[in-house]
Amino acid sequence: MTAITPATGLPAGGTAVTITGANLADGVTVKFGDAKATAVTYLSSTKLSAVSPAGSAGAVTVTVTDKDGLTSASTVTFTYSTDATATPSPSPSPADKPRFTLGTVPKQGIGLVAFSGGVNDDLIAAATDAGCERVAQAFFLAVDGKFIVFFPAAPQIVNAAWNAHFGGTLPVDLALAMRCG
Predict the structure, then answer these.
(1) What is the pLDDT of residues 51-89, one digit of tens each?
(2) Are 134 and 124 within 8 A, CB to CB?
(3) Is the dihedral of CA 15, 18, 22, 26 positive or negative?
(4) Domains in the chain, please, with CATH?
(5) Rounded to 5 degrees, what are φ and ψ at 126?
(6) How far is 171 from 118, CA to CA, in rounded Å?
(7) pTM (2 decimals)?
């Protein structure tokens, strides 16, 4: 592991981060000190996304552990700061509204896309802005060999696995499949 961006967040946790390095793999565990990150998503062999857990003010070492129990020899740190300028969420500002950073949003059918990060409502807004009506949207992500889904127009119980996995914050550069129509 070579870097984490951003490298600062609030002690309450919830900061979406991108971790870069080499030979990263699917199914890893990311820890901030002794606390496990949530919503760890494999993006490529050089990039992961995750959401910081709650922690005490100060710097902690970030580690990545693979399925075989091998932990990165990392000196990458994340600083929990009570400074009001620390950003707890990746929700974009109005000047940088949520969007799909890769792929093509289908008007009808299924497409593979990467989302800029935020919350479920940001994902819905990005799809709507791209021409996919809310009632026709469905999002799919493979996690540990199973698909989790998010249907904006469905009752919350249908989206329970999605919401439990992401804990309210979708990471930056989230790769997923989406259906429109």
Answers:
(1) 889 999 999 999 999 888 888 877 789 999 876 454 444
(2) yes
(3) positive
(4) 3-80 (2.60.40.10), 94-180 (no CATH)
(5) -65, -40
(6) 7
(7) 0.51
